[in-house]
Write a structure and sequence with these properties.
single chain; 99 residues; mainly beta; Thrombin, subunit H; 5-stranded antiparallel β-sheet; 3-stranded antiparallel β-sheet; 0% helix; globular; repeat; 6-blade_b-propeller_TolB-like; Peptidylamidoglycolate lyase; NHL_repeat
Length: 99
């Protein structure tokens, strides 16, 4: 399973054996793209996995959608990733989410 550990600002994997490990993020909130454990989230909420194996994360307090690639690198394809909430359709940084 892939889960959002909201208050620890991280995304974690739970193996069938019950082992838990962090894919991306850390207990320190913030906003940073990059290698998994160097990336930062702020209250990630929902997660899913797309057909390419990317983990798609709703990073609620950063008001954006994040991707964790199969290789572990985190990027922000939609939303600005800064404290600029809103409601706006658009492409890339033009799109706005409230949470």
């Amino acid at each position: 399973y892939i889960v959002a550990d909201r208050n620890n600002h991280s995304v974690r994997k739970v193996t069938p054996e019950g082992h838990v490990y962090t894919l991306a993020g850390s207990p320190t909130w913030g906003y940073r793209d990059g290698p998994g454990l160097q990336a930062q989230f702020c209250n990630p909420w929902g997660v899913t996995v797309d057909a390419s194996g990317n983990v798609v994360v709703a990073d609620t307090r950063n008001h954006c959608i994040r991707l964790i690639a199969p290789g572990g690198v985190v990027t922000t394809p939609v939303g600005c990733g800064r404290s600029r909430p809103g409601y706006q359709d658009g492409t890339g940084e033009e799109a706005r989410f409230f949470e």
